[in-house]
Amino acid sequence: MELLRSNLSRVRIPEPTNRIYKQECCISFDTPKSEGGLFVDMNTFLAFGKDYVGWNFEKTGNPVYLHIKQTKKPVPEDRPLKKPTLLAIGVDGGFDNHEPEYEESHNIVILPVYVTLPFPSVELPEKVRLAVDTILMADGAEWKEQVASWTADKKQNSAYAMNLQQIDNGVIVPPSGWKCAKCDKTDNLWLNLTDGMMLCGRKNWDGSGGNNHAIEHYNETGYPLAVKLGTITADLDGADVFSYPEDESVLDPHLAQHLAFFGIDFSSLQKTEMTTAERELDQNTNFDWNRIQESGQEVEPLFGPGYTGLVNLGNSCYLAATMQVVFSTRSFYSRYYMNQSLKMAFETAAADPTVDLNMQLTKLAHGLLSGKYSVPALEKDDVANAANSTPVAKQEGIPPRMFKAVIAASHPEFSTMRQQDALEFFLHFIDQVERANTGNPKLDPSRSFKFGIEERLLCPSGKVAYNRRHDYILSLSIPLHKAMSKEDAFYKLKAEKGLEGKEVSANEIERPMVHLSDCLGTFSAQEEVHDFYSTALNAKTTAIKTAGLTSFPDYLVLHMRKFVMEEGWVPKKLDVYIDVPDIIDISAMRSKGLQPEEELLPEAAAEGEAESKNLSASEDIVSQLMSMGFNYLHCQKAAINTSNAGVEEAMNWLLSHMDDPDIDAPISQEAQSAEVLLSFVDQSKVDTLISFGFEEAIARKALKASGGDIEQATDWIFNHPGVSDSSDMDATSSNSPIVDAALPDGGGRYRLIGLVSHIGTSTHCGHYVAHIYKDGRWVIFNDDKVGVSKNPPKEMGYLYFFERLDR
After folding, report:
1. Strand intervals (E) in 593-687
2. How far apart are CA 97 and CA 465, in angstroms?
3. Residue 265 burial (CB < 10 Å; 0-12/13-18/19+)?
4. Which residues carry out catalysis (predicted)?
5. Which member of 25, 26, 67, 317 is catalytic?
């Protein structure tokens, strides 16, 4: 007790604003349920597992800890299971999360000799008792992230219900025997509440559902409300009413009156169909609900190093699928696992390691790759009888809460519990990793994905311009006009399965199939660029653009543009397969650079430069970007800064400049400042770069190339190690292919090592799953479920990851 009293100055009573960690170690995924429990530093309120608390003492000198240990209580074998009725977790009527009950014990532990004092105890100093009580009563920082918030939005009254027009055309709806008026469907039928037409619902991604006749009827007539037959009972609040113009399930407060108009006595009807919400609920209770999760097949579970699942935090499958593939690459495996220990990361971390990206990446890497947390769960809840318990084919997985909080801190969307686009997350993640490794390019694992793109613009004058940029993904359009017919695609699939000794399932969907080579061809194909300002003609004109790669990265990520905009800017997912071989060769995509017979467009004079800077943005490009949710001003800037080259170029510019300090500045001001920067460089910034050891000429060139930003100028110099004051990075003449010396490079042959698949009507809903080629076999990573993949959905990928063969 005297030892504790002598260290009272190192004990703090938490303030309401303090973040208190008591559910998870900030260095590992240990919890109070782990064998050694959890130690909460009573000065910083950070938590540490048994193997790591000593490191914190060495680093901070803080000796007093609250030890929390949770032990499972025995659970009666005859405990009844309740069926969920609400799309929620851990609430009354929601999913039973099967969380067993725990007994929790507390002790005060004093390092370095691990003196242990029981709590509660009247002998403890009042300051310690008050501090512990505050810690135990406070909400843990981990749970303030609103983990597992699945509750569906509450339905609202439809604006169209009050004055709904109903047409007296003699329609009387019978109590049973319903059938679509335009096909033979007898289920998933919707009654239009205006004219009484009974029509089938929308067709799902897998061919199930209806034939779209109900929504087509709305498009033809504009009649707004429909109710799903089979969901109408005496409890009218449970009926599934859908509003087409509002595009969501709604409440119809006059539903009884609207049904009676067509002779429907709702009091006598029985429920025979699931509502839309119940269908969503059913899909969330059955994780084998689609092809990408290999439904209907027994998946052999895998355990051990490299086979650890990630717990779904609530719509976090986009993060889980992406990070599983990322950490299967050698670059990230080496950087954050093989070459960096947890202790090394902790010693170099900030005072609060929970907000240190390097620490949390290292924690995640060791959690996924060490195998420590990839062990079979015990079948019985009573761990006291663990010796008599048998493992079951599942693992608990690890929750990437702290990593998600850190990586999302600079992105408002990723910090929410909503589903996100895996592509956007990958690009944001890579950007954050690159920033964290600024000044250490050799340690930066994101460079393994980075490559150069060179665009050639041919003006009608016969002169050319070359633009260079760097990227991390190759985004590919899908040329549907080159697709195989559904029948040919089916027979090709059948032949491939036959070679593997497999049969095509009766449920296999026939879809048109496009070869990956045709998708790659769209990247290099000629494209017209309208409103291109030609300095040779001093006028806007139409140029011809082609593109190639200046370097071949260690890992090539292909993004399939399966989501397109239809007429009226309505997003649509392409119902198509991609024929992806295991080996691809992109050698022909190497850019050749400026050729001897080509003449560059002249540099703009001051007036022309100002004019080019003030080019009006293409409204077509701006409209497409705005339909994706971007700000109008930002969309204009993206179009102008890419010379209206196209939506893809504008999108890439926008994603890489979202954090620019002047992104919200008016365009006119930006143009003026850009023009000034072309002729003037702040000498103080030049002097700063010179103090870093760079030559003055190179410093000036870097500041001009980066718009006067010192940090970006430093990056530019590191990315152009061979540049001199006389070199020209924008236009070169060469008889041989261009090589970007600043980036990894090699041959053009690649092997498929992973894919991220998506199911859903948009990238912001549905589910993501990863398939990775490991140890000579394909493995499925479906959140916390990891197993041998018998039938990887290579044809359904959203992101494909290829590894260069000559690494």
Report:
1. none
2. 60
3. exposed
4. 317, 767
5. 317
Binding site: residue ranges?
180, 183, 200, 213
Active site residue 767: yes
Q: What's the pTM?
A: 0.67
Closest CA to 38 of 55, 63, 21: 21
Q: Domain boundary residue among 692, 719, 746?
A: 719
Number of domains in the chain: 4
Instruction: Please check whether residue 526 lies inside any domain of the structure.
Output: no
Is 266 part of any domain?
yes
- CB distance 694 to 715 below 8 Å: no
| Beta bridge mates, 467 | 455
H or E segment and range at residue 782: strand 777-782
Q: Output the pLDDT for position 663.
A: 79
Q: Residues 284, 287, 291, 295: is their CA dihedral positive or negative?
A: negative
Per-residue pLDDT reduced to its tens digit, 610-632: 444 456 788 778 878 877 778 77
Q: For residue 103, tell me if it sits in a domain.
A: yes
- Catalytic residue of the set 67, 428, 720, 767: 767
**Strand-pair partners of 759:** 767
Shared-domain flag, residues 206 and 140: no
Does residue 130 sit in the same domain as residue 259?
A: no
Which parts are annotated binding residues for Zn(2+)? 180, 183, 200, 213
Cα angle, residue 30 at apex, residues 29 and 36 outer, rounded to 5°: 165
Residue 805 token pair: 């063969």
* Confidence at 90, pLDDT banded by 50, 70, 90: very low
Could you tell me the sign of the dihedral formed by the alpha carbons of 376, 381, 384, 387, in that order?
negative
**Residue 497 included in any domain:** no
Q: How far apart are CA 181 and CA 386, in angstroms?
A: 61
Domain C-terminal end among 237, 263, 284:
284
| Residue 306 confidence class, pLDDT cut points 50, 70, 90 | very high
Residue 366 annotated as catalytic: no
Q: Model confidence over 551-603: pLDDT tens digits? A: 999 999 999 988 765 555 455 677 789 999 999 999 999 998 889 999 999 87
